[in-house]
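Look at a sample.

——
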Amino acid sequence: MARRLTGRVVIATHNPGKLREMRDLLAPYGIEAVSAGELNLPEPEETGATFAENASIKARAAAHAAQLPAFADDSGLTVEALGGAPGIHSARWAGPDKDFARAMRVIEEKLVAAGATTPSLRRAAFVSALVLAWPDGHEEHFEGRVDGTLVWPPRGTAGFGYDPMFQPDGHARTFGEMSAEEKHGLPPRGQGLSHRARAFLALAAACLQ
């Protein structure tokens, strides 16, 4: 039986894009969210080998430091033609200055070098592991995934990260061309389309409703 979340929660991120998305997702449930950045919590070193391990590291650290329930997302882009890269290193490919335009160019260069020039060879997925941790050590784990194709040149200026080059299956637009509500709005307002929204829907079903 999953543990219910009530009251206040720490969102264990210093990423403003993730923070906006997670606050939007939590708002309908009456959960007060404060970020690790707002609490001046240190960022733990992400030493895990998977998205789930890194999300757990971040959630546990925030829950212990704030003595509040905390949840963390670790997510990224996995590209089939690149053997799953950048994967857990998705943010690192953008460098310390978070230059995702550069990171997208690197991916495109690697795809071209690998001969992945047709849509069928440019398959990719966004994956999100979401971990909810309590100060007593209890954890709940959830995962969401959305499959799609990488386009070039990137399209759209909405979203963040690799969104402008990722076109989800069944859609003619990239994440970068979709509004926040289209991308991660929950039913009935949205489709719960993004990887993070899908992981959150699983969390909400288990811990919030």
Summary: The CA atoms of residues 154 and 165 lie 4 Å apart. DSSP finds five helices and six strands in the chain. The beta strands are 8-11, 32-35, 70-79, 123-133, 139-150, 166-168. The two ends are 13 Å apart (CA to CA).
